[in-house]
């Protein structure tokens, strides 16, 4: 389903007066508004192929209908998001949930929607039909070499799929760990995992990156073999210059200072990518910015500061992706909200007066330092984000457009009310 450009134009025309009033107000407050708008236009957030269906918990799943039935329809859905917000120009695939059977066709379809292929994601946290060995007791950490080899081979296969599509990165998230004290020898588990990752790393093309994602707990509840940023950094450092740590916001213990983690990883040149979501208790997979927007701002503040300090390009030098999927919302509406929250927070972080903040820090002026950050966080930048969208051909209010045009009803009409997307 391709959106009618003239419908977006009509929508924008209807809203333009209100928009311009808000934009002129905020634009007068911002230094070099043109440079800021360009940064917002360039910034793209990859959508994971598993976020397009209604997610579930282990207790139940309540699909809302019209979910994409195959990879082609998933690409269409992301194309729809991208047509509305012009900030969702990439898709991140999960193998084996979304194997591209015909890479040329899939690549052409994605290009038609203006989409690129972001990081490829492997899966050794589930057993697949016909698989020789089980991952019940881990994959890359497993005590049995044959199981480890199976996990290595799978990851190398994922790289091959990615090569056909033009992807340039592999994300490895392992559920490996243990549920009870004594179950695992920690050092052996680490060494086995490192050796397995080394084999995958050696199959990595020269221009690829490998992201090692960590998670504090779940599905294992006593120990996780890539449990925190220290462990991930250890693997990434031992693997080599193409390996990086990936930070998923939901993968920390409660109250972890994620902004500090981000700052230090950037300092070491080892931050590779980001998975956005929000949470109150654990890995809740809630909409970005829905629970802890100030934390998200503080993280973005460190990202902008740290990337600028290293001369990195905000839009392309890190992998930006949403990793969320839950039960009660229309997944496309949820993704529009998440991307909007990311863009708003990025814009706020760009507004921080870095010079004044550095001065305040040197003078130990705690109050001013806090004021500078909160000044940016409390600025309503929505008109800036909307202006960037307008310039690149998107809708002034993507969510309103989606609802006014009853896009979900159209999807249900064509795909049926019982269709269910692959994923968690
Ligand atoms: Mn993740």
UniProtKB/TrEMBL annotation:
A single MF term (Gene Ontology): isomerase activity
Keyword Repeat: no
InterPro entries, sorted: L-rhamnose_isomerase, Xyl_isomerase-like_sf
Keyword Acetylation appears in the UniProt entry: no
Membrane spanning stretches: none
Entry keyword set: Isomerase, Manganese, Metal-binding
Alphabetical list of Gene3D superfamilies matching this protein: Divalent-metal-dependent TIM barrel enzymes
Protein name: Sugar isomerase
Domain of life: Bacteria
Source organism of this protein record: Limnovirga soli
């Amino acid at each position: 389903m391709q959106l009618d450009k003239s419908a977006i134009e009509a929508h924008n025309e209807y809203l333009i007066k209100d928009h311009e009033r808000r934009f002129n107000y905020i634009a007068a407050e911002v230094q070099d508004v043109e440079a800021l708008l360009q940064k917002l236009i360039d910034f793209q957030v990859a959508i994971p192929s598993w976020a397009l269906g209604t997610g579930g918990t282990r207790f139940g799943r309540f699909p809302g209908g019209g979910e994409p039935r195959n990879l082609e329809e998933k690409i269409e859905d992301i194309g729809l998001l991208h047509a509305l917000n012009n900030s969702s120009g990439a898709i991140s695939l999960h193998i084996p949930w979304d194997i591209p059977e015909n890479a040329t066709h899939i690549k052409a379809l994605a290009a038609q929607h203006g989409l690129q292929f972001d990081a490829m994601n492997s899966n050794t946290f589930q057993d697949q039909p016909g698989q020789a060995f089980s991952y019940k007791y881990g994959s890359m950490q497993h005590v049995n070499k044959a199981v480890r080899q199976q996990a290595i081979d799978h990851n190398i296969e994922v790289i091959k799929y990615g090569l056909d599509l033009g992807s340039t990165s592999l994300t490895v998230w392992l559920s490996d760990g243990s549920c009870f004290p004594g179950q695992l020898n920690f050092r052996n588990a680490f060494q086995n995992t490192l050796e397995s990752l080394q084999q995958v790393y050696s199959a990595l093309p020269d221009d690829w990156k490998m992201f090692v994602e960590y998670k504090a707990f779940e599905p294992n509840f006593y120990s996780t073999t890539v449990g925190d940023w220290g462990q991930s950094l250890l693997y990434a450092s031992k693997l080599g210059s193409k390996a990086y740590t990936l930070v998923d916001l939901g993968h920390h213990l409660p109250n972890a200072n994620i902004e500090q983690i981000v700052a230090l990883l950037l300092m070491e040149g080892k931050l590779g990518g980001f998975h956005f979501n929000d949470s109150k208790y654990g890995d809740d997979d809630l909409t970005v910015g829905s629970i802890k927007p100030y934390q998200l701002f503080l993280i973005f503040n460190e990202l902008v500061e740290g990337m600028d300090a290293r001369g990195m390009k905000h839009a392309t030098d890190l992998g930006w992706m949403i990793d969320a999927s839950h039960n009660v919302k229309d997944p496309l509406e949820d993704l529009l909200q998440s991307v909007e929250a990311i863009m708003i927070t990025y814009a706020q972080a760009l507004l921080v007066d870095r010079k004044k903040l550095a001065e305040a820090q040197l003078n130990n002026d705690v109050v001013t330092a806090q004021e500078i950050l909160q000044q940016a966080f409390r600025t309503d930048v929505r008109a800036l984000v909307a202006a960037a969208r307008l310039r690149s051909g998107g809708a002034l209010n993507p969510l309103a457009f989606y609802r006014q045009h009853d896009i979900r009803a159209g999807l249900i009409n064509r795909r049926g009310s019982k269709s269910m997307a692959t994923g968690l």
